[in-house]
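Long-time lurker. I teach an intro course on protein structure, and each term I like to show students one example going from raw sequence to a predicted 3D structure in token notation. This year I'd like something fresh instead of my usual example. Would anyone be willing to generate the tokens for the chain below so I can use it in lecture? Attribution to the forum is fine with me.
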Amino acid sequence: MTPTRGPLARLDGSRDELAKAWLVRVIERASLEEIKELPTDRIARELPALIGDIVTSVATANGTYELSEEQARRVASLAALRSGRETSAGDVARDVAALQAVLVRALREELAEKEPERFAEAVEHLVDATGAIQAAAAEELIRRRSRELESQANTDALTGLGNLRHLQKQISHLLAIHKRYGHPFGVLLMDIDGLKRINDSHGHPAGDRVLMQVAMSLQRSIRTVDVAARLGGDEFCVLAPQQAPEAATTLAERLATAVREEVATPDDPPVSMSIGVAACPSHGDDAETLIDTADRAMYRAKAAGENVALGEAPPSEAAEEAKS
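-- Reply from a regular --
Happy to contribute to a lecture. Here you go:
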């Protein structure tokens, strides 16, 4: 863009003051709680540059205003001003309207009396620019809301781990990778021993605390590539990419030890887990078979009073092993 000259150059030089004036308008209609949550550092960093972009666009007036990638990133900040509460499209529209009002007032002071025709033309281009900004901010708001809804749909509300829906998507992804590249992975199905007793003795809030502590312990103990999920009730699952049965069993033992050492309830013995281990392709190459194998192994571990049990080989493989 060509540099601005004359009155608009003076306007461009006042971008910090214009940003302050806009922030005052936003604060005037905000609650004290909202004001406390306003990201003033980000506003001070992003808004003057955006105002400079708008003023330059008005000065050059080369047709329809289009946002550059950098401008779109700045506009995204406008869509996320109220980080402490849910932002609506109306909030975004009012914020952009306040910005437009500040800039129109500044244009009036610079051009209205001296160059009325140029003032009218500048306002026209300003409206075009702020309209593009409002559209971009609204689109960013929709994208952000969609990401939040997607996250909520895949997250267990109590523990913050993935939920059953998330687990199903991840195991499908790992099966697709196995089908294409032959990469193995482990499925660790587990439940908390005696959670009902904890609920009965100390109440459901105590049981919920145990669930959250177990979730944190699992997250601390797994690798970054592993996926931990809560399936509901006292059941959890961990998917472990690139793990054959032996390695997956070692991981299960480590998780059981971590939970036993890190999770406790008042006046009760340490919390323990029963974990069943299955692995693809050793125990199957579809989700239903793997989960069923891990589930049966988990109940064998529980019945035997052990922490971990490895799933049994599929019937055909078991028969071959018996013959040998």
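Some talking points for your students: DSSP finds 13 helices and five strands in the chain. The mean pLDDT is 85.
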